[in-house]
Amino acid sequence: MLANCASPTATWAEPGPLTRPPRGALRPATAIILAALWIASIANLALWRALAGLPELANGRGLAFGIGFGVMIAAAHVALLSLLAWRWTLKPALALFLLSAAGGAYFMLSYGVVIDRTMMVNVLLTDTREARELLSWRLLGALLLLGVLPLALLWRTPLRWATPLRQAGHNAILLVAACALLAGAGGLFFQDLSATMRNHTQLRYLINPLNSFYAIAIMGRKPIQRSGVAVAPLGEDAHLPALAAGARPPLVIMVLGETARADHLGLNGYARDTTPRLAQENVVSLRNVWSCGTNTAASVPCMFSNLGREAFENRQTNTEGLVDVLQRAGLAVLWLDNQAGGCKGVCDRVPKVDYRQLQATAPELCADDECFDEIMLRGLDERIAQLPAERRARGVVVFMHQMGSHGPAYYKRTPAGFKKFMPECTTNALQQCPREQVVNAYDNTLLYTDHFLASTIDWLKQRDNQWAPAMVYLSDHGESLGENNLYLHGLPYRFAPDVQKHVPWIFWLSPTFEQQSGVKLDFLARQQGEKLSHDHYFHSTLGLLGVQTQVHDPARDVFTSCRAGAA
Which of 7, 212, 244, 389 has a C-alpha 20 to 30 A away from that of 360? Predict the structure, then answer.
């Protein structure tokens, strides 16, 4: 009787517990198992490729461990999804898992990255302009094939739901079975698992998409650098000695480089002459310098801190940094940012000019919502003149945050006149280009950085009659250019390749600055091969400018032994 009352066009979008399920309807447990198997196998190709490359697993035992490891991953996903196997939550949960797995698989396979907390911080802090450079048809294809297609099949398939009480029982049975399978496989292959995870810790960051979920979860324990009232003051005793009679106030430009690796600078012995103009200047390039992190979000707050990398990573509270201490000492401080990503909180309490304000200065240097780094020199006199006069009388420090060698679209970072190394890769999908073309595009960005730094020195020289000029350049981190199928940067520090951590640090001091400060570049040149790091940046900058404060550590100041009369 009830069946005769039903509309002939009625569909079974989602059968209820008291209705007869249509033909082909799946039990929720079946849908979960199918999704888990898809994720553990196809969506984890980056993990399986990495395991296949381990020599200790290149035998039958290794193959058995790989299969067991896959079973463990599938069981872990089944266990998690069993907790969400309810009428209104299961399909949204499957959508989250499948789409996250698809995106993670694409980036790990394409660029050789892993997904940990620092990488997730990068994702959350990526602005729209940077995100556009990561978009490609390959990404769309990967999302459609690995995520949307299986999700569409599962979403269109009706599920056979039991009553809430029975469904709770089914979920409990599925959870217990998955946990038992996980424990059994783990126990059977425990020796291989513990040895592999101990010797190759990066593998844990390839388990997709659990790596992304874990990274987000631990961000609550180690939050992103905060700003504003939550930041504790630093160097409250900071002050400057009075300038000698007739002395000129210092004018120092601190260039914060982006993604420059030390081994690709001609100054540092690279086979290509990527620094022809700097080679003609009286500069010192320190050749054994190591970054605080492998991405901007990690490196910049760390290098501007007085703590050093290890202490900064384990800090309990956030404090002010270098920029704040310089301003507290009485200097006029200005931050110019040619990156949409900003200064990561280190410039929040000083005068600053963002990239959109820079664009209005010289639109001819800009295209596609970004500008070449030279734009930071345009109108700089006027910007300095707007700083408080009493501070300018003590000295001016201008921080310039470069676009530099920001990837993956290296070809966008250089004007046509600086494309010396050709052909270059002209796509953001670096894996589609021969490695030689990727290197060409990257080296062209360093050639342009050389031009920008030399132009900055020329600008400073023209103001020597009023100021005591100097320039310091230091990059935030390095870059992988296809070595071992790795691209870009951001790998966890402890197993990131050296090319992501080895950075250039370059100094130019005018004769006036040398004479007044007592700092001599000849002495600094003696440290060219000494191992240094971002840990020295905060203290060396204070030493360069003569800022006196208890937070200054002379042992981490590269200028301590560089003053006139030093041995």
Answer: 389
